[in-house]
Every structure is written in C-alpha cells, then in structure tokens.
Amino acid sequence: MSQISKLYPIKFIPILKEKVWGGSKLSQFFNKNGEGKIGESWEVSAVNEDVSIVESGSLKGNNLNQLIEIYQHRLVGNKVYRTFGNKFPLLFKFIDAKEDLSVQLHPNDELAKKRHNSFGKTEMWYILDAEEKGKLVLGFNKKMNESTYKKHLSENTLSEILHSEKVEKGDSFIIESGIVHAIGAGVVLAEIQQTSDVTYRIFDYNRPDINGELRELHTDLAIDAIDFNNTSTRLNYVDKENIPVQLFKNVFFHTNKLVLSQEITRDLSNIDSFVVYMCVEGEGIIEMNGFSETIVRGETLLVPAETIELIIKSTSAILLEVYIP
Q: Comparing C-alpha atoms, which of 184, 47, 180, 41 is closest to residue 106?
C-alpha cells in the first residue's frame, strides 16, 4: 500500500472450506463460486493463515491484518484497538451442513489462552435455511455431570444424552463456550464468533474425513472444557421493518437484525467499533463518505469504525448488523 487510501465499505474474498459434511447450497444460493463439498465460507477472518483479502477498490489485494496495522482505530474503533491491538476479534462465516457436523464444544477464553494461546469461542447462529428435519444439537437432554458423561462416553452412547432442537429459517441461537453442540443435516446458517479455530470434537459418527481417515477426537481436552450446567439459548425477538432489532448482546459482540423495505439512514456515531453487515436475504446498496457498495444474499461488508453515518438502500434486504459493544 504505497499511500493511505480513503476507507470505504470493504468486501473480502470468501475463504471457502471443503468439508466431509459440506454441500452445494452456498454455491447455488449464497453467491459462492466453489466446487465440491463446500461446508464453510469464511467471510471476514484473521484466523492464523486464513486472513481475508480485500476483493475490490483501492485497497484490493491487501489483507485484513495489513489494514489494521495501517488504519488502526480508524478501521476497528478506539476501544477495540486498545483491547485487541492488531488482532481482529471476530470471525464471520456462512455454513452449509448437508450432513451432520461432529458433536463438539469450544473452550472459554481462560482455557484457550492457557492451552492454545488463543481466544475462546462464544458463537451465535442465525438460521438461513433448514430442511424439514433440520435440527441442532444443543447441550444435554437431562441434568448432567462429569461422571455420567464419562459413562456414556465409555459405552459409546453419547447420542442418548444429547438434546436436539428442530429449527427453521429465522431462528437464532447463542452458543457460549463449554456448551456441547452440533449443526444437523439440512441446515444452512450464518455464524458470528470470537476469532478462534479451537474446537474439541467429542463424537463424529465414526465417519472418515475427505481424505478417508477418521478425524481426531479430543476426549481428554474436552472434559475440563465442558460446561455441564449451561445450555444454549434460543434468542427471542420480533421482526420490525426498517429499524434495528437486537438479537443478542454480550461483551464479545452485539448483533441486530434489519428487515428493510425502504431506504434507511444509520447513525453510527455512538458505536466505537467496526460494523459488519451480513446479507441473509435480498440485496441492497450501502453508501458512506461518498462511496457505494452493493450487498446481496450471501455477501458480507465491513464498515470502518470512523463512519459516522451510512445509508442503506433496499426494498427487500435482511441484514445482520454486528459490532463490538
């Protein structure tokens, strides 16, 4: 980057991940150009070697880490930069589960820092599409403790104690660290999470991966990380047109849903953070500081923190709006 360019709504090149459980819906319906079993599209990422690269505009070809190093608080916000420095704190994905994902959980910040020098992972799911039998695994179906869990683990009857929940388009859930969970076959969703790729897999249906080998289980690591007393939370909300509706807010991220039938102006002056928009339905145009960028179903935009106000033009879009509170 020979000179500092003006910041604008930034679209990144999706990082597509082939998975043994992946399908074709992200390519068919969500604007991804992938082949094979595409399970995940990482939309905005600074995880290890998977760092997002700018797709277009004057910053094209630069990666997210480079942008933060140069623009710092202008891109991510004063508080965010003081807290996380040059580390981008969130990871945004679209996920297509043609088959069941493994049953897994994620460590909290303290354990992840100690074991992996990583953030933990609290994540949120918004259901984009679900087939008739689409479901999620969310915690246990009865009161659980370590000894009972180990008994079922040793007897290979873990599936008997897992709680599953049928889902449909528009449902949303928060999955805190330590909660046992899995995405079921036929579910497509948007995922917002802390920047982390640390996963403890505890059950994988004894199936081989795309290379024909059984995937590693993390039985011992998982024991200390499981929260036996917590369950995933279905988020209750009521859609309202053309105003933000809060889906969830905690210390890690704040997520609103925008159902648009007309042009709106968003005042971002009180948000000391970057803002990410994930388009889950329809299409629109986002305008800020003299720049304009389209966003269609399956696309994601990062709006720099220095943005005071923006205009979203659409008659048919549904957007998830995410920032650090």
A: 180
Give Cα 241 to chain centroid, integer Å.
24
> Which of 219, 200, 224, 204 lies closest to 106 in space, CA to CA?
200
Please say whether the dihedral angle defined by the alpha carbons of residues 18, 19, 25 and 26, taken in this order, is positive or negative.
negative
Would you call 240 exposed, middle or buried from its count of C-beta atoms within 10 A (0-12, 13-18, 19+)? exposed
Q: Helix or strand or coil: residue 73?
A: helix
Catalytic choice (201, 215, 234, 297):
201
Domains and CATH numbers, the chain: 15-234 (2.60.120.10), 245-323 (2.60.120.10)
In the residue annotation, 115 being an active-site residue is answered as: no
CA-based nearest residue to 40, from 244, 190, 142: 190
Strands of the sheet containing 318-323, edge to edge, are 245-249, 254-259, 318-323, 275-281, 300-303
**Each residue of 142-159: pLDDT tens digit?**
999 999 999 998 898 999
Cα 216 from chain centre: 23
**pLDDT, tens digit, 9 for 90 and up, residues 155-208:** 989 999 999 999 999 999 999 999 999 999 999 999 999 999 889 999 888 777
Global pTM? 0.94
Query: How far is it, in rounded angstroms, from Cα 203 to Cα 222?
Result: 11
| Cα 259 to Cα 171: distance, rounded to the nearest angstrom | 14
Per DSSP, 210 falls in state: T
Task: List strand residue ranges (DSSP E) for 49-183, in order.
Answer: 50-51, 90-97, 103-105, 123-130, 135-140, 162-166, 172-175, 181-183
Local structure of 222: helix, strand or coil: helix
**Amino acid code (one letter) for 37:** K
